[in-house]
Amino acid sequence: MNKDDTKESVKEVAEITESQRKDVERAAEYIRQAKAVIVATGAGMGVSSGLGTFRGPTAGVWSPLKELGIDFTAMSNPTWFNEGSDTPFGYAFWHFRYTAYTSNEPHEGYTILREICEKKPLGGFSFTSNIDGHWERCGFPEDKILEVHGTLHHMQCSDRDCVEESGEEGIWPTDPEMYKNMVIENNRVVSELPKCKTCGKVARPNVLMFWDGAWNGTREEVQEVRLSDFMSRVKREMKSSLDEDGTLAIIEIGAGTAVPTVRMFGENLAKKHGAKVSLIRLNPIEAQGPAMKRFVGLPLDA
């Protein structure tokens, strides 16, 4: 991103105050200066792709939840896969989510951010709490993505003992035909439920749910190692560029405070490395942030 590109990007932001325009210019300059970029995204990143968030003005996950008075946290819960639970109802919820996420295309912002990362000397990395797989679908390198809450595009066993014994081998790619062939009546799956490839018990999405003691996190652990390797290269550059600020730019989008995993990730990195890190936060309702030299909060969406 050269200076002309920066000016053009600022012009494209409509209906903002003069103060916000200056913040946009400062954010664009921080991105231009950076030698590496981490894009940190929460549920708000998917709103422009037609996906709902879990709270706030863009909330909208599965209509039966509101009709039945069931909270999202109670529905996104591994107990629905336990023996004796209403697993067909639980699977109807995940069928809806998988269908919604796969039928909506990643919006243009994904491609723009991917191209920004590709132009940086040290490249970029995606840190996301989203389970939709949109970063990989937009062409972001698979080995540069950390899906901290897992993904709907992989499956695992619902049994904790099987998970502990099988480890990484107990995770397998989701077969799109599995959800496509599900028959749903009255908000319940009436066709055969997916089974674990190892023990034959009910399989479930490889997603970290609320109060989840049976999540198989071995795939995410491999991704963490890759992020650590990426940060090792960035830290070496920080040390060799003693007089330069802003080696790393963290562009955080759509990450709220209710489940602050993504926000805390960026803030902790920024606090640890000081002026070597720029933190740019885009959030239409929660743009506030820490008091630090290179922080910019923009009340904007993706």
Topology, element by element:
Layout: H1 3-11, H2 18-33, E1 36-41, H3 63-68, H4 72-75, H5 87-103, H6 108-119, E2 124-128, H7 134-137, E3 145-147, E4 150-157, H8 160-166, E5 172-173, H9 176-180, E6 184-185, E7 188-189, E8 203-207, H10 218-240, E9 248-253, H11 261-273, E10 277-282, E11 295-298
Parallel strand pairs: 1-2, 1-9, 2-3, 9-10, 10-11
Antiparallel strand pairs: 4-5, 4-8, 6-7
Explain how this protein is built.
The chain has helices at 3-11, 18-33, 63-68, 72-75, 87-103, 108-119, 134-137, 160-166, 176-180, 218-240, 261-273; strands spanning 36-41, 124-128, 145-147, 150-157, 172-173, 184-185, 188-189, 203-207, 248-253, 277-282, 295-298. The protein is of the alpha/beta class. The strands form 3 sheets. Strands 3-2-1-9-10-11 form a 6-stranded parallel sheet, sandwiched between helices. A 3-stranded antiparallel sheet has the order 5-4-8, with helices on both faces. The protein starts with a helix and ends with a strand. The model is unreliable at 6-14 and 55-59 (pLDDT under 50).
Describe what is shown at a glance.
The chain is α/β, with parallel strands linked by helices and 302 residues long. 38% of the residues lie in helices and 16% in strands.
* DSSP, total strands: 11
Mean pLDDT equals 90
- What's the main sheet like? 6 strands, parallel
Low-confidence stretches: 6-14, 55-59
- What is the subunit arrangement here? single chain
List keywords for this structure.
11 helices; 11 strands; 302 residues; 3-stranded antiparallel sheet; 16% strand
